Amino acid sequence: MADFSWNTQSPLQKALVAGRHGVASAQAGVTLVEVRDLVLVQVMARRGKAADTAKAAKKLFGVDAPSTPKAVAGKTATLVWSGPDQFTVLAPRTDESSQIDAMSQAFSGSASLSDQSDGRCLIRVSGPRGRDAIAKFSSLDLHDAAFPVGAAANTAVDHTAVNFYREANGADGHPVYSMLVFTSFADSLWHTIVDSSLEYGVDTSRTRAAA
Amino acid sequence: MRIACPFCGERENGEFTYLGDASPKRPNFAVDSGESPERVEDAFYDYVYLRDNVAGFMREYWYHGGGCRSWLIAERNTVTHEFRSVTAAPGVGASKPVQAGE
Ligand SMILES: [Zn+2]
């Protein structure tokens, strides 16, 4: 009997056509990137164990886990708030099973973990008009004062749940926003973002998560 | 209408789902309390079906399903839609040693 094997592929396998779309100006107004090869784990503190969970996170990642809607960069991962006493761990994939094992041990007895690595798609929006494109489909207030670098939000975009957070500004000085979306909705959200970006010109591509 | 979630901040009401009056308390009768079946039935009938039609402020359950997925209790004026307060329902998050439900 032939060995059965799973072949993982991007949820944007069809939707993402790398290159320039929309207005062909010299510089694209929006840069849209799918970030692949992530390990993504949902951490939910158990009843009465929020303090233990925070302690374990600090020990493993060297930073305080976010207790308000924020994204915090730790030693080996970024921790993104995803609700009261819960957060999502995002790490570039190196050795997935040992990365998950290390977390299982660290949070043993304090939190429940759920591996979402292939359950979510990470889409990153940047460029001088990135914020304008997002404003067309999101009701979040993305003004610098309301949503600075490191801010995070669970929100709904087109009736779809999105974990939204702002990363450090790009080399061009413009804001960079990341969106985590269920893989089955990634295609739809991608088209929404591309459509919103056409008038500014949009460069699309795929990249590996940076270590 | 925007609702200020105690966890997420102010959001559009499309992210929330309305459940209803947060005041009714589930009747709690011990199995062998000797309570008459009629009284138990009346209490449950009241709890399940009967609601006050408040004109003014009432306590309501709202669910922030498009955000932090927390149950909230809001004091809303049914006449003006003014929100006086929005707080987490008991049992939300893991910090408090309270089980879900009131
Ligand atoms: Zn919320």
TrEMBL record, chain A:
> Cell membrane among the record's keywords?
no
Please give the Gene Ontology molecular function terms for this protein.
sarcosine oxidase activity
Identify the Gene3D superfamilies for this entry.
Heterotetrameric sarcosine oxidase, Probable tRNA modification gtpase trme, domain 1
> Has UniProt tagged this entry with the keyword Oxidoreductase?
yes
Q: What is its EC number?
A: 1.5.3.1
- Its domain of life reads Bacteria
Q: Which UniProt keywords apply?
A: Oxidoreductase
Name used for this protein in its record = Sarcosine oxidase subunit gamma
TrEMBL record, chain B:
Query: Is the Oxidoreductase keyword given for this protein?
Result: yes
- Name the keywords, alphabetized: Oxidoreductase
* EC number from the UniProt entry: 1.5.3.1
In Gene Ontology terms, what is a biological process of this protein?
Answer: tetrahydrofolate metabolic process
InterPro entries documented for this protein: SoxD, SoxD_sf
Decide whether keyword Mitochondrion is in the record: no
Superkingdom as given in the UniProt entry: Bacteria
Q: Please name the GO terms that the record assigns under molecular function.
A: sarcosine oxidase activity
Q: What is the name of the protein in this document? A: Sarcosine oxidase subunit delta
